[in-house]
Design a protein that fits this description.
- The protein has a single domain, classed as Sandwich (Immunoglobulin-like).
- It contains one helix and eight strands, in the order βββαβββββ.
- It has 90 residues and is mainly β.
- The strands form two sheets. Strands 1, 2, 4, 7 and 8 form a five-stranded mixed beta sheet that branches.
Length: 90
């Protein structure tokens, strides 16, 4: 599992997954995110042909969250990748 840099509870930051190595010439046609536990807030998300991005805010100090991105591709693949992120004090 991958690890993103930590964020403080006050931060509103964007994080992404670059799918290009996995996708080759395939492209993302849909992207969704889940967060566990669910008190870390997704404020928005977007995707480009090979990169999925999520914006995160809030969270509980000293809590590690698992953020999972599920993509669908032009060739019909459905795949997910989970990333851990630690929330720190302000």
């Amino acid at each position: 599992m991958f690890q993103w840099p930590s964020k403080s509870t006050a931060d509103l930051l964007d994080y992404g997954i670059n799918w290009s190595e996995f996708l080759g010439s395939d492209t993302i046609t849909a992207s969704g995110w889940t967060i566990a536990p669910d008190d870390l807030v997704q404020t928005r998300n977007s995707f480009l042909p090979q990169i999925a991005t999520i914006w995160l805010s809030g969270g509980t100090p000293n809590q590690v969250y698992t953020v999972t991105n599920t993509i669908t591709t032009a060739l019909g693949r459905v795949v997910d990748q989970s990333v851990n992120i630690l929330v720190t004090n302000n």
